[in-house]
Amino acid sequence: MDVVLIAAVVVVGVLGGLNLLLMLAVLRRLREYDDTWARSGMDNLAQRRFLPDAGTRVADFTITTLDGAEIALRDPAGVSGVDGPLLVAFFATGCPACHDELPRFVQYAATAPGGRERHLAVVSGAPDEVADVVEAVSPVARVVVEPDEGPVTTAFGVRRWPLFVLLGQDGTILAGVGGVSALERQAVSV
């Protein structure tokens, strides 16, 4: 009887060890696939579902930026005579990925065509929590602070943060991406 019990424990132990090794191999392989997708610029399917589709027209909106400029969908730049898409960046204060992408966005926007007049940063969050984000993006973009369900966030149908959108002069989304590296690739093709 003791021999049968010992044999059963050994078999269960060996099976448990094999299971553990198999699980570690699967996790390593998944990590390799994740790195491959990230290098190719493809977000995972769950993230892509929450990005706006190119060709979608944004709902009408009119907002006033922190520096007093009024921006309306009919004239997305708020400046006459300036051509090219409007770059709209959406950040939320409670979003760790937003804080990771913020310095990359500031660096990209500082050199992107159109300058500050063609860049809009929409910061969602409580007024007492947005100061650091506003301070970072103000030199390179006009800034709007609004709650999570604010007029610009609603007009664009934002369902994830961070979000970077290239908006055509007619209010049509040219590209919507979740990271600055993908934004750089999209901006070249637009």
CATH superfamily of the largest domain: Glutaredoxin
CATH class of the largest domain: Alpha Beta
- What structural class should be given to the helix and strand makeup? alpha/beta
Can you tell me the number of structural domains? Answer: 2
Quick one: biggest sheet? 5 strands, mixed
Which descriptor suits the 3D outline?
elongated
What is the level-2 CATH architecture name of the largest domain?
3-Layer(aba) Sandwich
Number of strands: 7
Q: What count of helical segments does DSSP give?
A: 6
Provide the succession of SSEs: HHEEEHEHEHEEH
Mean pLDDT, to the nearest integer, reads 84
Distance between the termini: 76 Å
* Helix fraction by DSSP (H/I, runs of at least 4): 40-55%
Side by side, the strands of the main sheet go 5-4-3-6-7
> What is the beta-strand fraction?
15-25%
Rg for CA atoms: 23 Å
Give the CATH topology of the largest domain: Glutaredoxin
The low-confidence parts are 40-46, 77-81
